[in-house]
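[#protein-structures] MJ: dropping Cation:proton antiporter here for a structure pass
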Amino acid sequence: MEASFEITLQMVSAVFAGISAQVLAAYLRVPSIVLLLLLGIVLGSDGIGLLHPHLLGTGLEVIVSLATAIILFEGGLNLNLRELDRVSVSLQLLVTLGTLVTLLGGSMAAHWLGEFPWNIAFLYASIVVVTGPTVVGPLLRQINVDRQVATLLEGEGVLIDPVGAILAFVVLDTIVNGDADPINAIIGLLIRLGIGGAIGAFGGYLMSFIFKRANFLSFELKNLVVLAILWGLFCWAQMIRSESGVMTTVVAGAVFANSSVPEERLLRSFKGQLTILSVSVLFILLAADLSIASVFALGWGSLFTVLVLMFVVRPINILLCTWNSDLNWRQKLFLSWVAPRGIVSASVASLFAILLTKRGINGGDSIKALVFLTIIMTVVCQGLTAGWVARFLQITSKQATGAVIVGCNPLSLLIARFFQERGENVVMIDTDPECFSQAEAQNLRVISSSALDAAVLEEAGLASMGTFLAMTSNGEVNFVLAQRAAEEFKPPRVLAVFPRDPQATASSNSKVNQAFATDLPIKTWNEYLNDGRVKLGTITLDETEFANQLERIQEKIRTGVLVPLLVEREGRLQIMSANQEWEVGDRIIYLLYDPRPNLLKRLSGVSQSTPLSLEKLPELEEVPLAKLAQLSTSDAPGT
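AK: finished. structure tokens for Cation:proton antiporter:
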């Protein structure tokens, strides 16, 4: 078999295996890295022997470098500076003080428990400083954790990767050259970070300039231009100072993402696909090159080293870095639990094993084995249990409370009143100052501005709110507002009043739900509220009468005389969506049209300013079957 075909077969097998693992992980809803590691080991020399990455020679290092550049650039694209600003102090401490804590704690554990020499122990600790956005990102999207926690973990994963990678190479350079002066090491680290940051900032601005001004280029060609510039910047930084390229890629992505570039969504999609491909191939190849015998040869001391890193060093790290933050103990506990290592640790460890072997320094294979043991234990233990831990600690995004409501009108004020009475934070956004007096009379916070401005939504605190509701009089505007809110801030519940069939909309944007009912005439119901032609009712869905209750409610919705507003389930109040699946025990709060003439209402003492009271209305109450039988008997002939 020709050598070129053998290399081709290796690459094709790695791609096929990597994508297969991704598909299976998506189906099983488990972190993809778990299956990538397992499949790579199975296909490697210690398994069935299908993959032999050493056949790629130096090409493996090239693949690792270029793929890592794509992965870190995509991580930089996901950095939202507005969200990071809310956790900036904690994030800064995690990247600086946290790096130092992990470096010292990990090296002491590796030396005293794993019995590694101090130089090799420091090298191991510098490699596992990083947490890996390629593992953290998909994991957080899968479990839908609280946005503040997610932002901190994502920011840490992206920003600490270049810092940790450069730190590892500085430690390696110190070991290889025998220079133990810490001042020189710190200077080398800062120089690499500075060079990489400067080139990355320039490159990010250049990419955004091309995307904004080069209108003669197609979207597809623009994406490829960005890829070419990215690799060019990476090589440029590497030529000036080795290992500064990793910082370049992150900064370039962050600058580009925060430059308000049109069609940025298309680039994110393209780079996201490249990242999935890169991660899949790299993990398969690097895991296949791992010697299982070297992992078992580490002994119990190395196992204890990883356990100390997970359950002692990480909690101390989080405790010190979030001491003065507004995070509660549940959020801090979750941050202490989740710190999986990823592709950067694996790729750096693999490269170091090769470099140390070339220089005749012992410990390269042991470091690689210990790093992969760390990856396996953190990913399997933390990745598979993170969802359960988040639910146990009640910090999933579904538990987020509060609402941002766009459109200040009688119906939205009624909705806001219910949330406010529950003690939840409510913020109204509208451009009409005439509506503000009613909201302020109810002690509601109102922002006089356009909700199309992301800064306004940030001011309203949407990043930490549980619900976004757009209910202005313009349905098309409502849908656009909800779309942007879902993409920019990702609140757990996004609803809007718009004149479309929710089933037809689900295929184009499943993140936006139609509020209340299909084709709700919001202007008409606001007029009903102003004129006092409505009643505010509540009904609890009973198990014995569930079908009949559901039928009566749906019939009144179809005839346009009833609007379901809110549903209370398991003690939590949520805005009703048009495609809501109702369950036994749900408490439905609704508006019922009351067509009595206004004059009759005035005579009966009902005024427009009288606030609606919540009551059980006879229109939706069913006569109990026992009472119905009694009535039938009493009405029978001869009684």
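MJ: nice. Confidence is low (pLDDT under 50) at residues 502-509, 623-639.
AK: one more thing. The first strand starts at residue 403 and ends at 406.
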